[in-house]
Design goal:
By secondary structure, the protein is α/β, with parallel strands linked by helices. The chain folds into two domains: 151 residues, Rossmann fold, CATH 3.40.50.1220; 78 residues, SIR2/SIRT2 'Small Domain'. 32% of the residues lie in helices and 17% in strands. The protein has nine helices and eight strands. A six-stranded parallel β-sheet has the order 3-2-1-6-7-8, sandwiched between helices. A two-stranded antiparallel ribbon has the order 4-5. Helix 6 links the parallel strand 2 and strand 3. Helix 5 packs parallel to helix 9. It starts with a helix and ends in a 9-residue tail after the last helix. It binds 2'-O-acetyl adenosine-5-diphosphoribose.
């Protein structure tokens, strides 16, 4: 299932980047971004709720949607793919993990130094002071009020039309400008600027490895396409990569 040529490529990679999307958390029971709307929320498209305009016109609706997603995430556990990604950190001289996921499951699986490209749903931020704060436990407002200034809180995530946090964008660009290989896992590769990162790395000569259940706009440019679920492919890749390298004299 894992091509030997891929393992050879990885062995010569000093700096690898892993870019993940919501497919990476699908096997944890967290629906992918575009499949997320069920039950009460099926009448809305995520693109309609995850915007500053939606929050301005109906903050309660948007806050309640995020609360429902927070509940799903709190009940979820990292899957075998998350754990394999955390273990890969030990096998490259340098590994940079960039995630579009807001669920915090990579950190819970043991990944360190995660670049959260789209923020983290478990944090809240004051809409006026822009600082990260937690609502008072007794505040069940929708949205709750900032404990410092009383302004409404919002989830600390990036909405459509908003900028990527400066530090995350610059760290991700720097990694993409220096890596030898980039894994692109469980993302539809549609949402900018994240979607451009593998193309930038590829243009510099980095090897692109895509892991996805389906073809994406990146597939035709990828050097290796591993089709299937990340929870199945990543442990197999970790296992193959962990084996000692064969030397020509070995039989
Ligand atoms: P999408 O829902 O667009 O894409 C999920 C991808 O995961 C698809 O390409 C699926 O084929 C693939 N997939 C599903 N299950 C999988 C599995 N078990 N293993 C491997 N692949 C699987 O989600 P994202 O690409 O993450 O941004 O979406 C990117 C961004 O779009 C999100 O972060 C969100 C949204 O706009 C913001 O909220 C700003």
């Amino acid at each position: 299932m894992i091509p030997g040529t891929l393992i050879d490529t990885l062995r010569t990679s000093a700096h690898a980047v892993i870019l993940t999307g919501s497919g990476t958390s699908a096997e944890s029971g967290v629906p992918t971004f575009r499949d997320a709307q069920t039950g009460l929320w099926s009448q809305y498209r995520p693109e309609e709720l995850a915007t500053p305009e939606a929050f301005e016109s109906d903050p309660g609706l948007v806050w309640d949607w995020y609360q429902s997603r927070r509940k799903v995430i709190a009940a979820a556990e990292p899957n075998a793919g998350h754990y394999a990604i955390a273990a890969l950190e030990q096998l490259f001289p340098k590994l940079t993990l960039i995630t579009q996921n807001v669920d915090g499951l990579h950190q819970r699986a043991g990944s360190r130094n995660v670049i959260e490209f789209h923020g983290n749903i478990n944090r809240s931020r004051c809409t006026v002071e822009r600082v990260i704060v937690e609502p008072r436990p007794e505040d069940d407002g929708s949205p709750p009020a900032c404990p410092n200034c009383g302004a409404p809180l919002r989830p600390d995530v990036v909405w459509f039309g908003e900028d990527i946090p400066h530090e995350a964008l610059s760290a991700a660009n720097s990694a993409v400008n220096h890596c030898d290989a980039i894994f692109v896992i469980g993302t539809s590769a549609l949402v900018q600027p994240a979607a451009d990162l593998p193309f930038k790395a590829c243009a510099r000569g980095a090897k692109v490895i895509e892991i996805n259940t389906d073809a994406t706009p990146l597939s035709a440019s990828a050097h290796f396409v591993l089709q299937g679920t990340s929870g199945r492919i990543l442990p197999a890749l970790l296992e193959a990569f962990s084996q000692p390298a064969q030397t020509p004299g070995d039989s």
